[in-house]
Amino acid sequence: MAATPRGRRSALIGGLIALMIVAAIGSLALGSVPLAPARVLAALAGRGDPVATAIVIELRLPRTILGLAVGAMLGLAGAALQGYLRNPLAEPSVLGASNAAALGAVGAIYFGLAELNPLVLPVLAIAAGLVSLVMLFALAGRSESPLTLILAGIAVSTLAGAAISLALNLSPNPFAAMEIMTWLLGSLENRSFQHVWIALPCIAVGAALLLFDGRALDALTLGEDGARALGADLRATRLRLLLGVAIGVGGAVAVSGSIGFVGLIVPHLVRPLTDRSPSAILLPSALAGAVLLTLADIGVRLIPSTNELKLGVVTAFLGVPVFLAYLMRERRLW
Amino acid sequence: MVTIALDGVGVSLGRRPVVRDVSAVLTPGALVGIIGPNGAGKSTLLRAMLGLIASTGSIRIDDVPLSHMARGAVARKVAYLPQGQTLHWPLTVERLVALGRLPHLAPMSRLGDADAVAVERALKRAGVADLRERIATDLSGGERARVLLARALAVEAPGLLADEPLAALDPGHQIDVMELLRAEARGGSLVVTVLHDLTMAARYCDRLVLIDAGTIVADGTPREVLTPERLRAVYGITATIERHGETTMIVPTARAY
């Protein structure tokens, strides 16, 4: 009786892991210089020719790892927030952490600090994400209601967004403004292992915190009273959730820029394949987010265009059909 | 077996006192009904007993102060069926009922065979086993109410606090639910239920607690509590009270001014 849903869940997770491996190999093999999978694998094993090794290890491997990790973090954060806020339109940016992290990065570019060392920008972005968390706590107070949290998140997010606009407004020359704009569009181009070492620990901590609370998120299906009557400690849940989103999404945005829609659409894509309980979509959303962002990043490299397309632009375009499908199902058009 | 002892319990929502100086010992083995007019503080009292809302005075579950108990410990002692619960995700009935097993699960573990048995038992007892594959949010109000009752039963806690479990049910299912609650109580559970239907309350409850304006105005057997004078004073109604052997019928006839 219980075997069928559990079997279906294993099949879903297995399928997503397989897709993730395919996407990762594709990301290592494809680009301006396409490499045969055999050469890619040889380079990974340390037996490749120097050209392939340089391309795969130095250029594409960090980019692939970041694509997987950032995508997984955004997908997971979206799933956790939709469950916690019981709102299918919640996404990682709703608590303001991603805008604040972007502001930290923009500050680094605006004041010229980013040129001092490639690590200044991501570190400042993570720091700004954590500052936004402190503001969020100060604004939302001890209340456990999701509404106060959303309102506080919007306040923080709007403030950070306004400050970003201010930086664009006051930027001394068009090139500085252009640099900020480009960064804001989101990309994984030219990322090195340094970026990986900055983002990965943050994402690991964030993901661990968010994966912990599936139980409480399930209980919240019955509302706050219902969840607490089932033994959920909502205060601890909220603390883990806020820390997880701020640290994980802050770390992700710090290296990739703002990449929208992944956290919003991925939970919608996987939910129909599960029993629809919030806990059941957490891990699949992380895996599907990794697949989606990696595929989008491959697309960015392959779509011919004069400037390389930015990842955030592609994901935004991907988001629209998913929402139209959702809308049509709600209206029962099909 | 579980006992809830209230001593001088008070609850304020904002500055407005909603429950005032309530003292009672709720014991297992007898079905306890809480009755009273709208806004009397019945639901608030139930929520206070579960620690879902801050209260003054003392609430002890099996002689342990509620404030000293972890949420999980309370959840394993007393199940709660709130009034008019909204469902936030379209889960299947079986999955929804399985939420009742959450208090028993260790962190990161899955539902085991014992949990599956408890879920099955709850589905059967609430008469919703044939709905198990349906999406709970698509059900009718009455079906959903019974599914939520099954969810509360699946906890298999020694105590059950049910807030208006009869709302939305047809007469047949009202009788089913009252018989189920009475059987649970007589089987050794603590069952406390908020009711509006005075005939049902008189017929099935072993003990009635009548609340008005946040305080207990009567506490005893239905025969002791439901007198014409009290109905007039508390509900502002005149009513015909007919007794046919064991059954009591209370038919409100008019507003009493």
From TrEMBL, chain A:
<comment type="similarity">
    <text>Belongs to the binding-protein-dependent transport system permease family. FecCD subfamily.</text>
</comment>
<feature type="transmembrane region" description="Helical">
    <location>
        <begin position="311"/>
        <end position="328"/>
    </location>
</feature>
<keyword id="KW-0813">Transport</keyword>
<keyword id="KW-1003">Cell membrane</keyword>
<feature type="transmembrane region" description="Helical">
    <location>
        <begin position="66"/>
        <end position="85"/>
    </location>
</feature>
<dbReference type="Pfam" id="PF01032">
    <property type="entry name" value="FecCD"/>
</dbReference>
<feature type="transmembrane region" description="Helical">
    <location>
        <begin position="119"/>
        <end position="140"/>
    </location>
</feature>
<feature type="transmembrane region" description="Helical">
    <location>
        <begin position="94"/>
        <end position="113"/>
    </location>
</feature>
<keyword id="KW-0812">Transmembrane</keyword>
<dbReference type="GO" id="GO:0022857">
    <property type="term" value="F:transmembrane transporter activity"/>
</dbReference>
<keyword id="KW-1133">Transmembrane helix</keyword>
<dbReference type="InterPro" id="IPR037294">
    <property type="entry name" value="ABC_BtuC-like"/>
</dbReference>
<dbReference type="InterPro" id="IPR000522">
    <property type="entry name" value="ABC_transptr_permease_BtuC"/>
</dbReference>
<feature type="transmembrane region" description="Helical">
    <location>
        <begin position="192"/>
        <end position="212"/>
    </location>
</feature>
<dbReference type="GO" id="GO:0005886">
    <property type="term" value="C:plasma membrane"/>
</dbReference>
<protein>
    <submittedName>
        <fullName>Iron ABC transporter permease</fullName>
    </submittedName>
</protein>
<keyword id="KW-0472">Membrane</keyword>
<feature type="transmembrane region" description="Helical">
    <location>
        <begin position="147"/>
        <end position="172"/>
    </location>
</feature>
<feature type="transmembrane region" description="Helical">
    <location>
        <begin position="241"/>
        <end position="266"/>
    </location>
</feature>
<feature type="transmembrane region" description="Helical">
    <location>
        <begin position="278"/>
        <end position="299"/>
    </location>
</feature>
<dbReference type="GO" id="GO:0033214">
    <property type="term" value="P:siderophore-iron import into cell"/>
</dbReference>
UniProtKB/TrEMBL annotation, chain B:
<dbReference type="GO" id="GO:0016887">
    <property type="term" value="F:ATP hydrolysis activity"/>
</dbReference>
<keyword id="KW-0813">Transport</keyword>
<protein>
    <submittedName>
        <fullName>ABC transporter ATP-binding protein</fullName>
    </submittedName>
</protein>
<dbReference type="InterPro" id="IPR003439">
    <property type="entry name" value="ABC_transporter-like_ATP-bd"/>
</dbReference>
<dbReference type="InterPro" id="IPR003593">
    <property type="entry name" value="AAA+_ATPase"/>
</dbReference>
<keyword id="KW-0547">Nucleotide-binding</keyword>
<comment type="function">
    <text>Part of the ABC transporter complex HmuTUV involved in hemin import. Responsible for energy coupling to the transport system.</text>
</comment>
<keyword id="KW-1278">Translocase</keyword>
<dbReference type="Pfam" id="PF00005">
    <property type="entry name" value="ABC_tran"/>
</dbReference>
<dbReference type="InterPro" id="IPR017871">
    <property type="entry name" value="ABC_transporter-like_CS"/>
</dbReference>
<feature type="domain" description="ABC transporter">
    <location>
        <begin position="4"/>
        <end position="238"/>
    </location>
</feature>
<dbReference type="GO" id="GO:0005524">
    <property type="term" value="F:ATP binding"/>
</dbReference>
<dbReference type="InterPro" id="IPR027417">
    <property type="entry name" value="P-loop_NTPase"/>
</dbReference>
<keyword id="KW-0067">ATP-binding</keyword>
<comment type="similarity">
    <text>Belongs to the ABC transporter superfamily.</text>
</comment>
